[in-house]
Amino acid sequence: MPTTQEGGTDVISVPIVGVGLLLGLLLSWGVLGGDEQGRVNIGHLLVTYLFIPVASLIISLVSLAVGKGINLARLTALAPLWSPQGRASLHQLAQRRIDKPWFFLQSQAAAVAFALSSLVVFFLQLLFTDVNFVWRSTLLSADALLPFLQAVAAPWWFWQEAQPDLALLQSTQDSRLQDVTGDVSAFARWWPFILATQLCYGLILRGLLFFAALAWLARRRQRAEGRQPGVASPPGAGWDTGPVPLAAVTEEIGTGVALVNWAGGDDALLQQLPALRQQAAKPLRAGPLASEAAQEEAERWPGEQLLILKAWEPPMGELADYMENTRGFLLPLDWKGGRLCPPRRQHLDEWRYFVRDRAGWQIYQPPMLRAET
After folding, report:
1. d(CA 53, CA 103)
2. In the chain, at which residue ranges do the beta strands (DSSP E only) sit?
3. By the 8 A CB rule, do 259 and 284 touch?
4. Residue (of 206, 193, 192) closest to 53 by Cα position
5. Which segments in the chain show pLDDT lower than 70?
6. Burial label, 345 (beta-carbon count in 10 A; 0-12, 13-18, 19+)
7. Which residues sit opposite 328 in a β-bridge?
């Protein structure tokens, strides 16, 4: 599984996957240990390898469709397993609005880890112990239970040894009140069915969803970066529009514009633009480093805004969403050694390309910060 970092957060979270791995080990070891006679109840195995994976998947998919998405990964994020840096990364995911696909991906990864650790325990038990599978029920008979098990086994119809039948059910029904008679070898014949259940409903199903979630997260991250797959950055151009249409650059803004420090840069940098501070009506904060209260205040500002941005960072989807309900100017800044310097031409052109089709917005550059070639 990929574990590379992007935006400060691993594509695959070790704490979340570790929880899934540990749960698989503990639950499998518990149910495969059997009773005092060493007999393993098939009902307990079905709960662990069928009902838990399927129920958790249904809950995750339904909540994903109707709300924020409740799954093991999001619940794990509430546990004290995260460092301050990890929690800051989770906050950034939420601000960039990619937390839902990220947590859904982690849930699938945790489920795959659960399935793999369960399979390891299962194979170890088969190799080194004499596992006898039985089933017990006060209400169900073999005839009543068979249709359900046949429905469970339908996906692997081609594997005859893993198909339950009435004779196997009748010969492995157990009661604590009577001794077992008949062919005792039948108690070991359940392992293909149990293995197929784990592979189908635990590993394969969640594995397919893992790769689907990985593709979903990749698309959302591309959108958050303001990019589309296969679309290159615009070519370099001067102040005038070149072969690729770019938004014009203005060197003038009106008075009363709210100054929004989206980049989260040091206010001392803005002291180097005294004319800009005199024109600005009010300093505001918004963006990934702003608090929710500061973000809401900036979004409610009725007039024009001047967003201070890091010129070298690509436009993000969160910024595009913010600009939909606001208007004003973007000021991409660059600095070295604590002093402002002109942004690179390629960086400025990328911002001009980003703004060109966004009504109500322009690129602003003071004369002292004309872009470098």
Report:
1. 17
2. 5-6, 9-10, 39-41, 132-134, 249-250, 257-260, 280-284, 305-310, 328-336, 339-341, 361-364
3. yes
4. 206
5. 1-10, 36-38, 66-74, 76-92, 94-96, 175-186, 224-244, 274-281, 371-373
6. middle
7. 305, 361
